[in-house]
Amino acid sequence: MRPNVVARALVSLTAVAGIAVGGVAFAAPSFAAPAASVQASDVSIQAVQNFGLSSAEAKKVQNWLHTYWGYTDTIDGQLGPNSWKAFQRNLQTYWGYTGSIDGDPGVNTIKALQRLLANSWGYTGAIDGDAGSGTRAAFKNFANGI
Q1: How many helices and strands (H and E) does the chain possess?
Q2: Do residues 54 and 76 touch, judged by C-beta distance below 8 A?
Q3: 96 φψ region: left (φ > 0), alpha (ψ -120 to 50), beta (else)
Q4: CB of 84 closer than 8 Å to CB of 104
Q5: pLDDT per residue as tens digits for the range 59-76
Q6: Cβ-proximal residues to 48 (8 Å cutoff; 6+ apart), any chain
């Protein structure tokens, strides 16, 4: 969903809930709450990308990130932006990641991950930034071996 569509939906749902719960329709003008303002930049989508790991495997990765790479969020088995920020710190330190620490597991993050996985975890494919079946299999090896 595009951010401005999400923002509009949130404003609409908030207005409907306010009318249903607070009886805003019956309030005098001097007591009515001001309209809410939500900008598209205020809404962000928190994507989770486990690249084929089960929740249990992703928890192992999060525990490793917590121990070594400053991950402080919940150990929930969902590799979201905070998990990937911690992983990017590792990839930047050891595996040639030069992008920003932004929590987005994009092409450059995956290339660095593939270099890590090729070193010790059975990845034999190209360092191409495509998290295909070989990358996913090696990532499972990593998760189950750390």
Answers
A1: 5, 0
A2: no
A3: left
A4: yes
A5: 999 999 999 999 999 999
A6: 78, 79, 80
Mean pLDDT of 121-127: 98
Check: CB of residue 66 under 8 Å from CB of residue 58. Answer: no
Cα gap 103→92, rounded to integer Å:
13
pTM of structure: 0.70
CA 102 to mean position of chain CA atoms: 10
> CB of 92 within 8 A of CB of 75?
no
Whether residue 79 contacts residue 62, with contact meaning beta carbons closer than 8 Å, is answered with: yes
Q: What is the distance between the alpha carbons of residues 74 and 53, in angstroms, rounded to a whole number?
A: 17
